[in-house]
Design the sequence.
């Protein structure tokens, strides 16, 4: 009997378990929520790294997200709390965002290197043209009288 009581207590708590956070009425699909988290992360990074870009384009990060995904602030907040209530699944979502950011960072570095290489080639061509133009001027005999 002593062994059955703890078992029944555990079974009772397990069977009566309620979700701490109820599923939102307008649930955002998990994949779309990851996209929203990704976009918010990018916009926040831009906001702190180069706020003039957002200001000059009149972009307000949260309003941009609401319009892009056709959601409102309450829906986003409820869904964020809902997904965050399962911390293991939320951690996976955050890791997906981090992986996408890392991939984008690598792509950006490749593009930057390619652009730097193009710029270096252009500068070298300009230097050669200037040198050739300078030599062409020097090869013409001077007609000035002394």
Sequence:
């Amino acid at each position: 009997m002593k062994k059955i009581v703890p078992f029944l207590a555990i079974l009772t708590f397990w069977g009566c378990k309620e979700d701490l956070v109820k599923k939102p009425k307008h649930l955002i699909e998990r994949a779309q929520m990851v996209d929203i988290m990704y976009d918010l992360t990018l916009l926040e990074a831009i906001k702190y790294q180069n706020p003039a870009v957002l200001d000059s384009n009149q972009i307000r990060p949260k309003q941009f997200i609401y319009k892009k995904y056709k959601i409102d602030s309450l829906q986003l907040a409820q869904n964020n709390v809902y997904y965050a209530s399962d911390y293991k699944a939320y951690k996976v979502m955050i890791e997906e965002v981090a992986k996408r950011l890392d991939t984008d960072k690598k792509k950006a570095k490749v593009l930057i290197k390619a652009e730097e290489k193009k710029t270096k080639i252009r500068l070298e061509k300009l230097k050669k043209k200037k040198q050739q133009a300078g030599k062409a001027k020097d090869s013409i005999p001077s007609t000035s009288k002394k």
